Amino acid sequence: MKLTFLGTGTSCGVPTIGCQCRVCQSTDPKDKRLRCSALVETAQTRLLIDCGPDFRQQIMPQPFRRIDGILITHAHYDHMGGMDDIRPYCQFGEINVYADPIARRGLLEMLPYCFAENRYPGVPAIGLHEIHAHQPFTIGDIPIMPFQVMHGKLPITGYRLGPLTYITDMKTIDDAELPYLEGTQILVVNALRSQPHHSHQTIDDAVTFARRVGASRTFLIHGSHHIGLHEETNRLLPPDIQLAYDGQVVEIA
To answer: pTM (2 decimals)?
Structure first.
């Protein structure tokens, strides 16, 4: 299994428009963070986690081949605002999109023309599937277990994909969800910045959570420009917990 980080930034992206801070002015490519999204691939199966407004830019460097499924974490624009740009991939057939009831409703409201009785020619061909926490399913050769985390007061979906656990936008998680994370080898989880936030984890929160999960390696995503320069922040983190960066590829046994 291979994990590719297409985007690792928060809803505003980095650099943030109009900001002159040292992170936004950095020339290090690892300090350029598009909105969060990832590819998970095996030799047979290709999955996209979230499809934000930067999807077209993110997917252009990747090989053009079928996307077997899109897993939506929640119905915020930075996580599904690029859905219309999946149109070129529909030449391989209808694209199956998986979302919890709240996110499913959000997709129907955002893309009504894709689900109309008389669809305009050329709109994305989407097969929309409602999923629920703790009800596993499989796409190709990848087993998937959805579970629930809290984005402030909003329940959203995290995904366990075999040895990989992917969580974004989490503030808290109920202890009852932790058994679904047991045996995680690679953990991807959000860390917005050092200062507290009402609906996102801080770096310290993410490190504490990673220790509870006990993964071999943890990658931090959904970082804002307040998280600091990539290289400087990574030097302060434990070796097994590091900031992910756009374009990073992780091979998973």
So the answer is: 0.98
